[in-house]
Amino acid sequence: MSNNRLSLVISDSPISAPRSTRASAVADDLRLKIMSGALAPNIQLRVQALADDYDLALSPVREGLNRLVSEGLVLAQDMRGFFVAPVSADDLRELTQTRCWLNETALRHSILTARPEWEERVLLAYHRLSRTPRREECGAPSPDWNDAHRTFHRSLTEGCGSSILIGFCDQLFVQAERYRNLSRRSPRASAEQRDDEHHAIMEAALARDAVQAVALLNRHFQETAKLSGTVLSDLEAGIDSGAMA
Fold first, then answer.
1. How confident is the model at residue 18 (pLDDT cuts 50, 70, 90)?
2. Which of 90, 71, 103 is nearest to 220 (CA)?
3. How many CA atoms lie within 13 A of 79 on its CB side?
């Protein structure tokens, strides 16, 4: 990895930055690279190489990697070190099912106890998502859209009143983003269709139609997973679906 240096701005003075801040910056940067596919599944993350790339001591790098282990994005193997977590059809199925279960519970409770401030957050989050371009002028995926997408899905669940449940939903969102980025490689992927899905989910939630909102949200997760699964199958069969955006 030392030949492909990672870009990271921790602070104007990395040495004086608190260790927790440096570890968080390492975790944040690696998380984005894993979610986007810039760091491929199964590759080894060498602590010394990362420390050299980030110009840091080993300790905050290890701490950052261990945070990603707890999120399921990195694996720690005894005597071998750290590796980007693999992707598989079985993992995708389990992840999607669990995500449906937890988000359904959180969304139902958010609608059941809906308050004006929750409805306003959902509406504003969707408005921002719908107005943010998916790609930058150079054609690269837009980090602003990715952030708006995360914020929208979090807004749907954050009215449930359980910080633990919200946290689990957030963690599953991060893991699912790796597979969503895979789905971009499918020729059947449609940006317009996905935006329509977000709009329909928002409208059902604000109408306090829990049955419809949950059904639409689950279908949204499942359709994205289906596209990702197609790409996984192609990759396992040795078929090139095109360069990942």
1. low
2. 103
3. 0
